[in-house]
Amino acid sequence: MVSKVFSGHSFYHACRYIVNKPGAEVLECEGIRVHDFRVMAEDFLVQQQRRPGKQKACFHCCLSFYPGEKLSDEHMAKIAKEYLKKFGVVDTQYAITKHTDRRHLHLHIVANMVNDNGKSISDSYLGLRGKKIAQQLTQQYDLVPAISKNLDLTNFPALRKSEANKYKVYNEIMEALPYCNTLQDLEKKLQQRGIEVQYKYKGQTQEKQGISFKIQDDIFKGSKVDRQFSLGNLEKTIALNQQLLHLNAPAINGTRHYSSASAGQQLQNILKSKISSRTETIAEILLKPEENKTLTPQELLKEHQRKKKKSKKRGLHR
């Protein structure tokens, strides 16, 4: 199961989206009327006014299940309520809606971050906390984990234009990168596929700091397409490709004859393996289930800083 939290949504637009989708079905709600999205939004707004200083009171997230995974409405509603509970979004209004417009089952949850007592609910680190909770619930309910992109199971016709373009960039890089010995090679191959490579430079120098890919009207940072497509990781992959090309070149009369096809196939296998079982980033470490589940990431950071200060004091007294 995958969690995605949307930021900056209003109750009006969120309610209209979750209710008016073809085939949308409200599985469960609390404290609101659901027969019309306008009435639903009005109910949320009335409670928000109990805490007028809380401007971003609309919590809107999507929980997506693995393609082909079948769950009953009762089971999905139970998982969604557990998700809200672990988030600390309790004693407040909410609506849980099932959408069936894509190949995979998914839920949309809209909740009020002003609770029934007029108190504000914490909205810090929503994205990271949501992903961490989704990981915990995936294990708890024995769901299929989402490890990497599976293009064969992606329902491209149902994707929004921007999402479809992002998947196209991902697919084209996967196809082209194993046969590139330089970034310039990658630029040329992607340009032939309608994708422009753009770089971010350090100050007024020619030192590259980042990479982006433009397709039609959309521009995606490399790391947003996939972490393996950041500038640093692309350079590492190209260096590996050069090594494989050299190792695969047979020596004839003292001269090596290179075949990019065999080296490219090897690199493509390595690239797919790295993406499916990549090393942990700081974000992934934060997403790991922790023994102390009561602490938020902010509290964990404060605890780390406290221990660091304590350690420094010990050093001064030695």
* CATH topology group of the largest domain: BirA Bifunctional Protein, domain 2
Q: Do you know the CATH architecture of the largest domain?
A: 2-Layer Sandwich
Largest sheet: 5 strands, antiparallel
The side-by-side strand order for the widest beta sheet comes to: 1-3-5-4-2
Number of domains: 2
Report the average pLDDT across residues: 79
Helix content: 40-55%
Compute the number of strand runs.
Answer: 10
Highest CATH level, the class of the largest domain: Alpha Beta
| Low-confidence region ranges | 249-259, 275-297
Report how far apart the termini are: 50 Å
Structure report:
This protein has eleven helices and ten strands. The chain is an alpha+beta fold and 318 residues long. The chain has two domains: 139 residues, BirA Bifunctional Protein, domain 2 (2-Layer Sandwich), CATH 3.30.930.30; 113 residues, no CATH class. The strands form three sheets. The protein has a five-stranded antiparallel sheet, sandwiched between helices. The protein has a three-stranded antiparallel sheet with strand order 6-7-8. Helix 1 runs antiparallel to helix 2, helix 3 packs across helix 4 and helix 8 packs across helix 9. It is globular, with a radius of gyration of 24 Å. About 11% of the residues have low confidence.
